[in-house]
Amino acid sequence: MSTSTTAPAGPSAAAQHDEPRRKKGSAGRVIMAIVSWVVGIVFFFPVLWMVLTAFKQEADAYTDPPKLFFAPTLEQFKEVLSAGAGPALLNSLFATVMSTILVLLLAIPAAFAVSLRPVAKTRDVLFFFISTKMLPVVAAIVPIYVVVNEIHAVDNIWTLVVLYTAMNLPIAVWMMRSFFLEVPGALLEAASIDGASISRTMREVVLPVVSPGIAATALICVIFAWNEFFIAVNLTAAQAGTVPVFLVGFITSEGLYFAKLCAAATLAALPVVIAGWVAQNKLVQGLSFGAVK
Amino acid sequence: MAEVVYDHASRIYTPGAKPAVNKLSLDIEDGEFVVFVGPSGCGKSTALRMLAGLEEIDDGAIRIGGKNMVGVPSRDRDIAMVFQNYALYPNKTVGENMDFPLKMRGMPKEERDKKVRAAGEVLGLTEFLDRKPRALSGGQRQRVAMGRAIVREPQVFLMDEPLSNLDAKMRVGTRAEIAALQSRLGVTTIYVTHDQVEAMTMGNRVAVLKLGELQQFATPAELYDSPKNAFVAGFIGSPAMNLYTVPVADEGARLGGQVVRLTAAQRSAISAAGITTVTLGIRPEQWSANNTNGSEHGIAAEITVVEELGSDAFIYGNLATDPSESIVVRTSGRSGARIGDKISLHATSDELHLFHPESGERL
């Protein structure tokens, strides 16, 4: 789902980049343009087809050859919403927003420490963070389930908040670290000479400079938490089910479900697209431009 | 305002290795403008950063106004610093940048505004107070960095190569502005540069450093007229002093097949040192050159480069007797000298410089 936000921008951006750098013949440029378009369409087409199918009747969704022109209908969306998309959307929203806030609250100070105030074992700490991502979730799910069950937290949205926080924290620390490393050391020195404490320096100098990095990190965390399926499907039931779990519920062994599934998937993708669009403004700002020459 | 004392201050990055700054001792008077100068890696920036609290003082002490600064954090040292890359806060406007050190010290808002506006006027930044640094030119950013330093009226100004990011013309103008501003404010200032012209033109006194060691701490005129060793002699002055290690003769020193006459005092210094060779230093303006095209008088040399600067000219060449030895001669402008011309040189001054050939110390 997340590809829908990035894929169309990717190839065209690459093409723009190449133009001023290499002074190629016009034939080369035409080939590059064609390749860019083909790659872009290959990535974008499934998303487009999903959106189109969401507006079809179930019968139209199964025609062979596929129909490009049809009478659009909102019927599938209505059905998806009446099937209980509301609670699933709310659950997903809660788990995503809460876990992202927690991740940022924990990751920003941690990344500040490991990047701007390193000590002897900083590298080991960083490795420890990333090593937690090396175990496949499948291998961890049984112990996690046992623990969660033991504390009577199965089918509780807070369980997902905690697990998603743990899941995204290492990535967020690593991402934020690379952004903090971009902060010119002289800025911190200037702040300390100007009389700022560490927390003031952090709030007034460092965080505004790394805000594009925070936006990028938050976006990644939102995407990962929103799309997370495996933990959710194993640890939730009727109460705390999230959107991906709800989506799978449309795959039935009888009857037609393809258009409905596409409508539900479109609805599920929408918040991430919106989040990406909101974060985009922040993301394109250059890091620390104008701070140092 | 305060005097600054470096008392055998050392910075040792790796124990056992040579210190980045080795037992530096300086007495800087209240209100003085002192320049630290030296080639890259000489420890001048490190020495400044030790005073700023950005580097540890591993040995010895640094005192500001009589107070020992070992272990005192930067923010409690009452100093202000201008960084080479300015280090302006990119998210803050020019006014907020200059306001920041005042705000951090808990000054009331009206007073802060007054001071920021006053500093803005002094530096010609009034119309830019609401702009972000990225909307300013290099020279304007440099002035904002200056403004952030002067607004607080600290005890000491520290400047770490503040002009090196400006173009040549602007550098000359800003150089004069900083010197004028400093003498008006009367704040003790320590200025780091690798540019000996900046050092000579701006400082009341100049500390020349090399490999973490202080070479000489003196007024610009003193550095130029009586450099303490061959390194200072070669570093201060542009173009650099001609330095030759030559055999001692009866009346003086033998250079290019001729005897360069030395004073009686210098000859006795040579004999006191018991040396048979000596390092002879001659400034470019201490030569006079005649275009001879082959005549035998004076030290013969051949011109390889002529730099016409308008008011005067620098002639570069090689000695005829030893083409590996180069010479620099300063003459008046439009000398008519051309590449390939043969010239003969005479030392015009009795005040030639003599250094010990091994230790490099002045004789």
Tell me what the structure shows:
The complex is a heterodimer of chains A (293) and B (363). Chain A has 293 residues and is an all-alpha fold. In chain A, 75% of the residues lie in helices and 0% in strands. In chain A, α5 runs parallel beside α13 (258-284), α9 packs across α10 (198-227) and α10 packs antiparallel against α13. In chain B, α2 (94-104) packs across α3 (109-122) and α2 runs parallel beside α4 (138-150). Chain B has 363 residues and is of the alpha+beta class. Chain B has a six-stranded mixed sheet with strand order 6-7-8-3-9-10, with helices on both faces. The two termini of chain B are 39 Å apart. Chain B has nine helices and 20 strands. Chains A and B meet through α9 and α10 of A and β6, α2 and α4 of B.
**Total beta-strand segments of chain A:** 0
* Number of distinct helices of chain B: 9
Using a beta-carbon cutoff below 8 angstroms, give the protein chain pair with the largest interface and the number of residues from each chain. Answer: A-B, 23 and 33 residues
Largest sheet of chain B: 6 strands, mixed
User: How much helical structure, as a percent, in the residues of chain A?
Assistant: over 70%
Structural class computed from helices and strand pairing of chain B: alpha+beta
Taken as a percent bin, the fraction of beta residues of chain A is under 5%
Structural class call of chain A reads: mainly alpha
